[in-house]
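In response to the reviewer comment on reproducibility (Comment 2.3), we provide here a single inverse folding case reported in full, input and output, so that an independent group could reproduce the run without further information from us. The structure tokens appear first.
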């Protein structure tokens, strides 16, 4: 019997202000990498709630999603462990407020930085994945879908009990 495919579901925030995009520099098993503020979807949370939480944890700034960018997939073979991981990324664009004084960045996040699309393109070898640049390119091209393009059923917070038939 074959093993069931279990992709890793993540969310990402694409944040642009005055022609520059907000990124995090983070420690990874592959070294220091650039990423959109992003992270894993947790049990019981909607993707919209997850992206707001992850952006706050990684940037210390409140994030307000304004549009859904899309669903992105990429496959990655981790050099150190040879783990074969497929990521399913739900990306949102939006705005951030000022950094919250005294709020620490999430573990592993070294700093936040603002880069132009050209600057981001010039340092692709430092990206956490090819999805970092693709999401920003889609945003820069004007891609935006309504936030309700992703439906989250209430059972995420209160699981349904299925009755035998």
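Designed residues, in position order:
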């Amino acid at each position: 019997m074959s093993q069931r495919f279990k992709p890793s579901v993540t969310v990402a925030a694409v944040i642009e202000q005055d022609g520059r995009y907000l990124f995090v520099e983070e420690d990874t098993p592959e070294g220091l990498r650039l990423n959109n503020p992003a992270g894993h979807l947790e049990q019981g949370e909607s993707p919209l709630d997850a992206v707001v939480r992850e952006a706050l944890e990684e940037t210390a700034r409140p994030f307000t999603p304004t549009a859904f960018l899309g669903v992105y997939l990429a496959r990655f073979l981790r050099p150190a462990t040879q783990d074969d991981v497929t990521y399913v990324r739900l990306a949102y664009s939006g705005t951030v407020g000022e950094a919250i004084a005294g709020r620490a960045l999430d573990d592993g996040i070294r700093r936040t930085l603002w880069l132009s699309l050209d600057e981001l393109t010039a340092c692709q070898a430092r990206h956490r994945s090819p999805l970092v640049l693709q999401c920003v390119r889609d945003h820069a091209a004007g891609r935006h879908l309504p936030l309700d393009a992703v439906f989250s059923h209430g059972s995420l917070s209160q699981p349904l009990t299925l009755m035998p038939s």
